[in-house]
Amino acid sequence: MARRGKALLNRVGYTARALGKLGRQEQEIAALRALLTRREAGEREAGIRPEDVVWVFGSGRTGSSWLTFMMGALSDHTRWNEPLVGYLFGHLYYERGWTRQDAKHFILSSDYEEVWLGAVRGLVLDGGVARFPERAGGGYLVIKEPHGSIGAPILMKALPESRMIFLVRDPRDVVASSLDAHGQGSRPSERRRTKRPELFEKSTKADRKPNAFIRGQSTTYLQDFEFTRQAYEAHNGRKVLVRYEDLRTDTSATMKHIYSTLKMPVQEDELVRVVERFSWENIPEDEKGPGTIRRKATPGGWREDLTPEQIEIVERETAPILDEFYAGG
């Protein structure tokens, strides 16, 4: 009897989730139909306003999930989790096509920038309203895009009205966190292996060659940082640079600073509730700690996580970041 009751509850839960997914899909289909109708009528910019788009760039493991979860939980905010549109165009333009940027036949040729920037703009705005039709009526679309930071200069040029958050974290903590996340048995690592088992060996590079892994992660962080800086300095719209350490030390004050600088009105009591809801102390114990997405949240934890040789590698590879933001050690 108990087993039958549990099976029934599981079926009920599955049905409820399926109905919820179906409802969301119907909303998205309706949004797509409305989008096509507007297109036929020539209303290209109808839908999400570009000035209501808020980008979060930087790099992986800098606290962008935490920040955007808090922002996405506020009224009239929606979180778009890593569309990778920045990686799509940035990788093609800066890595694959860097020798052809002035070539006539290259699809992202600099000579035809006005043409393809419009396509990038449309892809983001139309893609946003198709997925999140509730934002077509106003409110903010917060796009978490740390792994697409290589394309930040392109995206900010395509959407100059949009807002931008540049999130910085001590590279030593970033690399230590990444080393843990890519280690054998960690939840992020196991999730990747489950999705594409043919691409992953039983052990990971983080386990087999940790120093080489750390060097690669350090280089990636510096690259993401430099592309984000380029976009930040060129952007004439509303923007703010935030250190993860400040966000962690005084979350409420830093969140107020973000919203004030970006000229985004927010109710202070709601902001306080959201900060409390997503505080480290209120995360369930089985959802945080080593091997999870929310690993440590302790600035300076790299001192216990990395060997002296590994610390030297990170400090050498990311010296420009450390000299500017963490000169005090």
SSE arrangement:
Elements: H1 2-40, E1 53-57, H2 64-72, E2 77-81, H3 85-96, H4 113-131, E3 140-144, H5 152-158, E4 163-168, H6 171-181, H7 187-195, H8 205-208, H9 210-234, E5 239-243, H10 244-249, H11 251-261, H12 268-277, H13 302-305, H14 308-317, H15 319-325
Parallel strand pairs: 1-3, 1-4, 2-3, 4-5
Pfam families: Sulfotransfer_1
Protein name: Sulfotransferase domain-containing protein
Biased composition (Basic and acidic residues): 188-207
How is this structure best described in words?
This protein is an alpha/beta fold and 329 residues long. The protein has one domain (45-325): P-loop containing nucleotide triphosphate hydrolases (Rossmann fold). Helices cover 56% and strands 8% of the residues. The chain has helices at 2-40, 64-72, 85-96, 113-131, 152-158, 171-181, 187-195, 205-208, 210-234, 244-249, 251-261, 268-277, 302-305, 308-317, 319-325, and strands at residues 53-57, 77-81, 140-144, 163-168, 239-243. Strands 2-3-1-4-5 form a 5-stranded parallel sheet, sandwiched between helices. The model has no long low-confidence stretch (mean pLDDT 87). One of its GO terms (molecular function) is N-acetylglucosamine 6-O-sulfotransferase activity. Residues 178-207 are annotated as: Disordered. It comes from uncultured Rubrobacteraceae bacterium. Residues 160-316 form the Sulfotransferase domain. This is Sulfotransferase domain-containing protein.
